[in-house]
Specification:
6-stranded antiparallel β-sheet, 7-stranded antiparallel β-sheet, 15 helices, Putative membrane protein
Length: 501
């Protein structure tokens, strides 16, 4: 049994003899959960009616499965109970298999409040209470699905700031709010390309299952014939440019749904992030849990002058965007907000960094040069078999100058620095990212060297930290520079393992 699941005595009381009564989930969930189960079961019901034929057994079986799911949902709503005592948060769930979970309040790291459309229609919110344990089965968090909005706010306030903090004056500082002009950064997220690709894949598989040939359609057949007759350069441009334009248009609704109503505030020593148009997501981050920030400005965002940022905090789930501090927005504004979040005069990620050795440039240019050549050779050999058009190998050669430019840009972006109690590291080109880690949050180091790095006298320095992704790397440092940087960041940590000349 893991620590968060330890069973406590159900009669534990708060100091001073006060004991909060057991609370139930909001009664309106008795309507919401069964309705959702029925909607999810519609494909099953329709399938039993269509394919069951005159056999009523299958139809009754389908109805029985749906009815059982509805009864389980109603039973969960009626039996789930929770309460807050002076030392812990307790949750009871289950009908046949009763489960009693208790989490010490000093181990609670985050309270994540979300409101999907089904919840918002009834004024409800889903609450996830995180303990900082990252487990695939979700045992590191307790879920209340769902409570009223007022109750969700009370839980977040009490669990993160302790009961005595409730009486303090509310002083909310607004750090950032969504602006309409930020929508222009939506195409840089590339979500539109993903959506179009998924749509094309679904249509292709559906046509394949129905034994439909795309070339049987007149307009599509004419389009394929046009591309086959046109020069490959013109055909590529005519195919890619409309797709990029369509992807840009598709990405705008996705941006609004994810980041609409974005608001970043600070209440005393707790950051609050709220965002979402259809599904409202609210995350609270204690300031003393913040171990750094992650500034991202990929090539598409850089071309538009934008950037985005996430928090590196202990106990904060990075999945599903739980660590977002700033959505894609103007880069200068992102730097201003990060400076406020860190309570610094200047955002550390905006500082100039120390460049890496020229040997790192040679490695990147070599990879950028050999990659397209190997791809061209492979495509040429495949083209000899007749499986692909004979001109496809030339596409790889066209990418050669772009690959070399990306290699140079990747080296130009490499950098590191120690400044103001932060370890700074930058890497990447297409997906450039800058990390600012608080030095007192680093708990260990790892030095990685591949075969080719050893030949070049380079190494990758990895900082281990009990937050975020757990490890952040600075690639292709000179070996002596990596050891010096690690020793200066955390004096004495590596000294027992080093022999200085």
């Amino acid at each position: 049994m893991s620590a968060p699941d330890q069973v406590r005595a159900p009669d534990s009381a708060t100091p001073g003899g006060h004991e909060e009564p057991w609370r139930r989930l909001d009664p309106r969930m008795i309507l919401v959960r069964p309705a959702v189960d029925i909607i999810r079961s519609l494909p099953l019901l329709i399938g039993t009616l269509i394919f069951g034929g005159q056999n009523s057994v299958w139809q009754w079986l389908g109805l029985g499965v749906v009815g059982l799911a509805v009864l389980i949902s109603i039973g969960h709503c009626l039996t789930a109970r929770y309460r807050i005592t002076g030392e812990q948060f307790e949750l009871r769930t289950g009908i046949v298999h009763r489960r009693h979970r208790a989490v010490p309040r000093d181990r609670i790291r985050t309270v994540d409040v979300t409101a999907a459309l089904k919840h918002r229609l009834f004024g409800l919110s889903l609450v996830k209470i995180g303990t900082g344990q990252h487990s695939k089965d979700g045992s590191g968090e307790l879920v209340l699905d769902a409570v009223s909005k007022a109750e969700a706010q009370r839980l977040a306030r009490v669990l993160l700031r302790r009961a005595e903090a409730e009486s303090r004056a509310e002083t909310e500082e607004v750090l950032a709010e969504a602006e309409p002009r930020w929508v222009r950064y939506a195409p840089a997220s590339l979500s539109g390309i993903t959506t179009i690709g998924a749509g094309i894949g679904v249509l292709y598989h559906a046509a394949h299952d129905l034994h439909i040939e795309p070339s049987d359609f007149g307009p599509l057949r004419a389009l394929i014939a046009h591309f086959e007759a046109a020069p490959w350069g013109l055909a590529l441009a005519e195919a890619v440019l409309p797709l990029l334009l369509l992807a840009a248009l598709v990405s705008v609704p996705g941006y609004l749904v994810s980041y609409g109503n974005f608001r970043l505030t600070r209440d005393e020593d707790t950051l609050h992030v709220r965002r979402g148009l259809l599904t409202t997501r609210a995350v609270s981050i204690e300031q003393n849990r913040l171990r750094g920030v992650h500034y991202r400005d990929g090539v598409a965002l850089r071309l538009l002058g934008g950037a985005r940022a996430t928090a590196i905090a202990s106990g904060l789930a990075t999945r599903l965007g739980g660590a977002i501090l700033m959505p894609p927005a103007p880069a200068a504004h992102v730097h201003e907000v990060l400076a406020k979040v860190l309570r610094e005069e200047q955002d550390p990620t905006a500082l100039p960094l120390r460049p890496h050795p020229r040997r790192a440039l040679r490695r990147r240019l070599l990879r950028a040069f050999t990659g397209p050549l190997l791809a061209a050779a492979a495509l040429y050999l495949i083209a000899l078999t007749g499986w692909i058009p004979s001109w496809t190998w030339q596409l790889a050669l066209v990418l050669l100058p772009f690959s070399l430019a990306a290699g140079w840009d990747c080296y130009r972006n490499l950098g590191n620095r120690l400044d103001g109690g932060y370890l700074l590291g930058r890497k990447g080109s297409l997906r450039r990212e800058t990390v600012a880690l608080k030095q007192d949050g680093i708990i260990g180091w790892q030095l990685d060297r591949t075969f080719f790095q050893r030949r070049a006298g380079l190494t990758t320095l990895i900082a281990t930290i009990a937050a975020g992704h757990g490890a952040y790397s600075i690639p292709d440092l000179a070996e002596s520079d990596a050891l010096t940087l690690a020793d200066e960041a955390i004096p004495g940590l590596l000294s027992p393992f080093l022999e200085w000349d």
